[in-house]
Design brief:
Largest sheet of chain A: 6 strands, mixed
Structural class of chain A: alpha/beta
Helix content of chain A: 55-70%
Strand order of the largest sheet of chain A: 6-7-8-3-9-10
Radius of gyration of chain B: 35 Å
Number of helices of chain B: 20
Oligomer: heterodimer
CATH topology of the domain at 386-609 in chain A: Rossmann fold
Shape of chain A: elongated
Strand order of the largest sheet of chain B: 6-7-8-3-9-10
CATH architecture of the domain at 386-609 in chain A: 3-Layer(aba) Sandwich
CATH class of the domain at 335-410 and 490-585 in chain B: Alpha Beta
Strand content of chain A: 5-15%
Number of helices of chain A: 25
Structural class of chain B: alpha/beta
CATH class of the domain at 386-609 in chain A: Alpha Beta
Number of strands of chain A: 10
Strand content of chain B: 5-15%
Number of strands of chain B: 10
Chain lengths: 651, 586
């Protein structure tokens, strides 16, 4: 009966691949191998010994529990009703073989039973799958919304290349694994459990002794399978590792091929790649080979021919011994033969369950990422005076990046942060837009700790422009008016003009309606100017800026620089400075060294005293010819004594 | 598909395929035969004559033994084939990749290739390992059973066989419907996943501009659309989903009705009819498997296609008799482009008739707006691609006439996309010259300012850089690659300055590199820094793929044109102040 039962799953499972249990085993992807190292930072007060408890599969499925239960009930009924055709054939045999004259209406009644059973079963199964698919669509939406909500509240510093890779993986693979489980596998699993149980029950009802004999192959299979899987978990780990190794070699070979070729090492790299592949195949062979033998034998034991042979021989024996009415062997020949099938389905179902459990684990972790605490009673900043008070910060809890930093940005002033790379200037600047919270001390705006502000009131005060531009796949207009979705076209255009990008936008195929990345292919400098236009329109009184932005795209430096000059005018500015000559006129230059403020003051004063600033200034002059020639203030004489010629074109 | 699989397998592993196919077809036939044998056994049993059944059971035992042997055999051979495929695909792709033009390797492509080589190969080896057998059995067994029915009752047999064409049609139709709907669902899934990832990546900006508190409309729209698409697709796909199952059941009903009619008419032996009906219940099962497996097979087919696409990329032609470049012992190797035209694809040429000479030991700066073809020139010199017209000569010899190894031994490349191996910094520099002394490695590192990075890192020279150099910033990666190129000490250096402009320390590294190399090396630099341009022995100004000006700075800057404009803009940009004194006073 399992055969007809399985008709229900035709196509429903079509898009997912089905494999034999051992096939699943050997080709399963090493889920989680990448993510274990990316785990979220431990929560405060959490003992490191116990792994954090995240909502598991059950918790994730809870909202859809009702629907899934209804589907399961429908599936149970469908699987039971699926027995009808077999009972009908047995019934027809009974009618035809009865000593009395064959009653044709009784035969047709049995035919109706068979047809009715098939119809009911198909309808119920279709209903069950419809329900699970609806449940899945809602679950998917719910999960994604919850994920988005969580992502909107975690610390900005959490977002790195790795974490976005993780988000992508969870969304693509793990939500899909849940889809497979919810929409397909659960129903299949219910059917795979119920159908053989009903069949076995029916056979026992017909004749329990013959039933017992016919079922002998099943425990044999279970034994063989258990033996085969005895050290599967350990082997799975090894297999994952072997696959990771191979993938690493592959990525290295493919990504590094330009390097190995240009350095004349292609032959060696190729050799290594080949060897890695051969090693992998060899490992695969040594591991799976012996297991495969057992698996093949186990599968043979419950294959239809063997089950048929067993039940036919047993039937002959029982009939010969006179223990059973000959007509009663008919159901055994039909049902016992196919009992092996659902065993395989159970394997698939268990596999889907395992995969989904792992997926749920990762999803749960992501949904449990610690969020920035929101203030219970939010404060409102009084003014735009920014204060850093006794700020200490460390990324990993061990190396201190900022130590006891005190700094005040008076409204309308320009403060430049300078220092060698690793001195902490970028980190300090990023504390203000709350990419991270300090470990000790406070960052205050208008007298209020920024942790006591709502996101809204913080970002109404503070804007930022960093080197990495972030345009959304939306129209240029929507990108510019991100902060003020209700801004009219005139304001959008004014911002774009001020940011030197209006003309470029006007040349796009659909002007301001062109979609970034679709029909608006912008160069780095152009994208930067769009993001500057966005900041102009947002019009925050305090601005954090990375000065390198001005030089990020050599082909349009001038335009970006003009846009920046427009943007910074009149704002309280905190700038991460790399090229010292661009900020010599700052109200205050703060020199960071090893996470502490080493010096602070105006350019001329700092230059006059011996200290890190003077060292940085002179180091710069020594090492960069451009700087040496062009700085300061006379400016335009390039090296190699070509001053005269440079003046000329500007005349 | 078998042929495709065979072509990917090493030659010595191909012999197994025919035995494998024989075994799986054999198993299907034998399984069908064992079901057919139910009829004579049942005929005896229903007469209550168990002893008459004995010889038939004996025959059945024989068939079953053969079937078991066939199954076991195909499992073993199938596994060997899978192993051979795994090896073969790896070899074929590896052998091919070393011959593909370097220009083919974009980040996008390599990502996809890595995916199809790992996940894709798994799907593909699944075909011989466990996909093909149930598929073939699912078709062969019912056919055997139906043929067997013909022997016993031709009408019933015909009814069974007659359903086959209908089943095939429904199967195809359902498959098409399903793949159409699944395309729509996939598209919606890709869109919404893309939106969430964008939402994560753009989080700083979204938050700063107040888009998270009030909800991010684009994301919500995409998610709602996905749910909508999933539901709509499901509704539209229901006939496709249920169609084949219904058809198979209808086939069963047909056989049942025909059988019942014949029994009621009394025109068939009762025992035989019961046997036939038992066979009919066994007829439909394997067919249903076919639908599931067919879908899995299609997926594997897509992976196979992707691998074949890679293998279809035309390799770079290696000369049969490589010519050597001439290197002037005193002055090094020159480079010349003559009438070079080139386009990446059919969308038009990137370079038009570009000609210039770079005499040995001189520096040429390539100048022009982004997209003017500067980087393409350096790529053609390194033969990442072959020119469409004209020629590129290194040391007087056409690069196409040189062996790849010979050409590469003469070039050092510092390009924008730097790849570092997951190894120590020292080992990554040493890639430049494996037999370099420690002193030489240190010297190259010092010139490229890698020593400053080393100081900062916990494990110094032995710090591992992570896959692709993940531990280092972009500028730092480029410095390592500069050190690598310095260490290689080739006679021609191709240097792309573009990202070097990002970071002042990097600029200094490039500066020192050029200083160390100029004089006895031939340099071609994609230049943005004024100092580089001014110091060049020759400036080639490109505009939309054509050479528009050529000469030295002192001459070019005097004549009106692209170069003068470029120079003016750059000088202005250099002198820019983020804050000037007027502003600061405001």
């Amino acid at each position: 009966m399992n055969d007809v039962h399985r008709a229900s799953s035709v196509g429903w499972v079509g898009r997912e691949s089905r494999r034999s249990p051992a096939g699943n085993l050997v080709t399963q992807s090493p889920n989680g191998s990448l993510d274990q190292s990316v785990g979220s930072p431990p929560l405060a007060g959490e003992s490191p010994a116990t792994p954090p408890q995240h909502p598991g599969l059950g918790a994730l499925l809870r909202p859809q529990r009702g629907r899934l239960a209804v589907a399961a009930v429908l599936q149970v009924v469908a699987a039971a009703v699926g027995l009808a055709p077999y009972v009908a054939v047995a019934g027809i045999a009974g009618v035809l073989l009865s000593p009395a004259d064959a009653d044709s209406s009784a035969v047709w009644r049995w035919v109706l039973v068979a047809v009715g059973g098939l119809v009911v079963r198909t309808a119920f199964t279709a209903l069950a799958y419809s329900i699970t698919h609806l449940a899945d669509a809602d679950l998917g939406l719910d999960l994604r919304l919850r994920l988005a909500d969580r992502l909107g509240r975690v610390p900005l510093g959490w977002f790195t290349e790795r974490s976005s890779g993780r988000v992508k993986r969870v969304l693509q693979d793990d939500v899909h694994a849940l889809h497979h489980l919810v929409a397909h596998a659960l129903n299949d699993l219910v059917a795979a459990v119920v159908a053989p149980l009903v069949a076995i029950g029916y056979l026992c009802w017909v004749d329990w002794r013959l039933a017992l004999v016919c079922l002998i192959p099943l425990p044999l299979y279970a034994l063989a399978y258990g033996w085969m899987m005895r050290d599967a978990p350990a082997q799975m780990v090894k297999w994952s590792e072997a696959k990771d190794r191979l993938n690493a070699t592959l990525v290295e070979f493919v990504s590094g091929i330009a390097v190995v070729k240009t350095f004349g090492r292609a032959r060696r790299a190729h050799e290594r790649f080949r060897r890695a592949g051969d090693d992998h195949a060899e490992f695969f062979g040594q591991w799976v080979g012996p297991m495969l033998r057992v698996e093949a034998i186990a599968t043979v034991i419950i294959s239809p021919p063997v089950m048929l042979l067993v039940s036919l021989s047993a039937s002959a024996w029982f009939v010969g011994a006179g223990w059973i009415d000959p007509v009663d062997v008919v159901p055994f020949l039909m049902l016992a033969v196919g009992l092996g099938g659902p065993v395989l389905s159970l394997g698939f179902g268990a596999q889907a369950m395992r995969t989904a459990t792992e997926a749920a684990q990762r999803l749960g972790e992501l949904l449990d990422t610690p969020v920035l605490p929101t203030p219970e009673r939010p404060r409102t900043p009084a003014g735009a005076r920014v204060e850093f008070a006794g700020v200490r910060f460390s990324y990993d809890g061990r190396t201190t990046v900022l130590d006891d930093v005190d700094l005040v940005l008076e409204p309308g002033t320009v403060t430049a942060l300078v220092g060698a790379s690793g001195s902490g200037k970028s980190t300090l600047a990023r504390l203000l837009p709350r990419f991270f919270d300090p470990d000790a001390g406070e960052v205050r705006i208008g007298g209020a700790d920024i942790r006591q502000l709502t996101d809204r009131s913080l970002y109404r005060q503070v804007g930022f422009v960093f080197q990495e531009t972030s345009l959304l796949r939306a129209s240029v207009r929507d990108n510019i008016r991100l902060a003020r979705p209700d801004a009219d076209d005139a304001s959008v255009e004014a911002a774009a003009r001020a940011a030197q990008v209006h003309e470029r936008i006007a040349r796009l195929p659909r002007g301001y309606d062109s979609v970034v990345g679709v029909d608006a292919q912008l160069s780095g400098g152009e994208a930067q100017r769009v993001s500057i236009a966005r900041a102009l329109l947002a019009d925050n009184p305090v601005l954090v800026l990375d000065e390198a932005t001005a030089f990020a795209d050599p082909s349009s430096e001038a335009a970006v620089q003009d846009a920046l000059s427009e943007l910074v005018a009149g704002r309280t500015l905190l700038v991460i400075a790399h090229r010292l000559h661009t900020i010599t006129a700052a109200d205050r230059i703060v020199v960071l060294d090893g996470g502490r403020i080493a010096q602070s003051g105006r350019h001329a004063d700092l230059l006059a005293e011996p200290g890190p600033y003077a060292r940085l200034w002179h180091a710069r002059v020594e090492h960069t010819a451009d700087g040496a020639g062009l700085d300061p203030p006379a400016g335009l004489d390039p090296p190699a004594g070509l001053a005269a010629s440079t003046e000329e074109p500007s005349r | 598909m078998i042929r495709q699989l065979m072509s990917l397998t090493d030659v010595e592993d191909r012999g197994r395929f025919s035995r494998y196919l024989l075994a799986i077809v054999g198993y299907g036939v034998l399984q069908g035969l064992s079901i057919v044998l139910v009829i004579p056994v049942l005929r005896s049993l229903l007469r209550g004559d168990a002893s008459a059944a004995a010889p038939w059971i004996g025959a059945l035992a024989g068939v079953v033994a053969l079937a078991c042997a066939a199954f076991y055999g195909q499992a073993m051979i199938g596994f060997q084939i899978a192993l051979g495929l795994l090896r073969g695909m790896h070899h074929r792709v590896g052998d091919h990749l070393v011959r593909v033009p370097l220009g083919w390797f974009s980040t996008d492509r390599t990502g996809r290739l890595a995916h199809s080589m790992s996940q894709g190969t798994e799907m593909i080896i699944g075909v011989p390992a466990h996909l093909l057998q149930p598929l073939v059995t699912g078709v062969v067994t019912p056919l055997t059973v139906a043929s067997g029915m013909l022997l016993f009752d031709w009408r019933l047999g015909l009814a069974a066989l007659g359903t086959a064409p209908a089943l095939v049609c429904v199967y195809r139709w359902a498959g098409r419907l399903l793949s159409r709907t699944s395309h729509r669902v996939d598209a919606a899934a890709v869109e919404s996943a893309g939106r969430v990832v964008e939402f994560a990546q753009a989080q700083p900006v979204l938050r700063a501009f107040g888009r998270t508190a009030e909800g991010h409309r684009m994301l919500e729209d995409a998610l709602a659309e996905q749910r909508h698409a999933a539901r709509a697709a499901f509704r539209g796909g229901v006939p496709g989903l249920a169609g084949f199952a219904v058809a198979v059941q209808a086939a069963f009903v047909v056989i049942l009705v025909v059988g019942a009619a014949r029994a009621v008419g009394g025109s068939v032996d009762v025992a035989e009819l019961v046997g036939l009906l038992v066979m009919a219940t066994r007829f439909t099962g394997p067919l249903i498997e076919v639908a599931d497996l067919g879908a899995a097979l299609r997926l594997a087919g897509h992976d196979l296609e992707r691998i074949e696409e890679v293998l279809a990329v035309p390799p770079l032609a290696e000369p049969a008799a490589p010519a050597a470049a001439t290197t002037d012992a005193g002055r090094g190797t020159g480079v010349s482009l003559q009438g070079v035209s080139f386009g990446y694809d059919d969308s038009g040429n990137v370079l038009h008739d570009v000609s210039f000479d770079v005499p040995p030991g001189t520096m040429t700066a390539l100048v022009g707006a982004s997209g003017s073809g500067k980087t393409t020139v350096t790529r053609l010199v390194a033969r990442f691609f072959d020119v469409d017209a004209g020629s590129v000569r290194v040391g007087g010899t056409d690069v196409r006439a040189m062996s790849t190894e010979d050409l590469m031994s003469r070039l050092s490349l510092v390009f924008q996309d730097v790849y570092l191996f997951d190894d120590t910094i020292e080992a990554n520099i040493r890639v430049g010259r494996v037999d370099a002394t420690d002193g030489q490695v240190r010297e190259a590192a010092r010139l490229a300012r890698v020593d400053e990075i080393i100081e900062r890192l916990p494990d110094g020279w032995q710090t591992r850089v992570g896959e692709g150099g993940a531990v280092l910033s972009g500028g730092e990666r480029q410095r390592v690659s500069i050190a690598r190129a310095l260490l290689k000490d080739a006679s021609v250096v191709l240097l792309d300055e573009a990202t070097a402009a990002l970071d002042p320390v990097n600029e200094a590294a490039v500066q020192e590199t050029i200083g160390a190399l100029s004089g006895d090396r031939t340099l071609i630099v994609v230049a943005h820094r004024l100092a580089t341009v001014v110091a060049a022995d020759q400036i080639v100004v490109l505009d939309e793929g054509r050479v528009v000006q050529r000469g030295v700075h002192s001459d070019l800057v005097r004549e009106p044109g692209r170069y003068a404009d470029f120079w003016r803009e750059r000088v202005q940009a250099r002198g820019w102040r983020l804050v000037d004194r007027d502003l600061a006073r405001r």
